[in-house]
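Table S2 (text version). Query chain:
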Amino acid sequence: MLDMKIIKALQTDARKPIVKLAREVGANEATVRRRIGKLLKEGIIERFTVVLDYHKLGRVIKAFIGLRVQPAKLREIVDHLSKHPDIQVLYRTSGDTDIFAEVIFEKMEDLNEFLEEELRLEGILGTIVTIVIGPYKRCPWTGL
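Corresponding C-alpha cell output:
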C-alpha cells in the first residue's frame, strides 16, 4: 500500500524532499504530495516533529513506572503527572497497574527523587518500577 510506504519513509526522515521520497516509494511526485496532503487532512499524520538523541543530551536513564491508583483520584493524578517534563508518555492500562509512565532522566538520583517526591500523591496505592538496562530495538521517537 502506497500510503504505508510513504508513512514508513517519513518516519525515517520527515524532511526528505518529495522528489527523493517519490523515487523511494515508486510513485510520481504529484501523487506523493497529494497522498501526504490526504494523510494530513484525515489526521492519519498528525504532525511532523523532532526526534531527540537523549544520549547526547545526557539523559540516559529510562524507566517504566506502573501505578496502582484509587479510581476516584485517577484524573487528578493524571493531570498532575502530565505536567512533569521528564514523563515522556502516560498510558491508561489494565491489569496490575492503572497508569503506566515512561520517564527519561539524566541520572539515577533524578529518578529516585522523582519516585520519592512526585509520586507521594494521595490516591497512589503502589508503584512498580522497571529500569531499562539496554535496548534490543530502539524507540523510533526517543532513540532509547
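Notes on Table S2: Strands lie at 61-69, 87-92, 99-105, 124-131. The CA atoms of residues 25 and 106 lie 39 Å apart.
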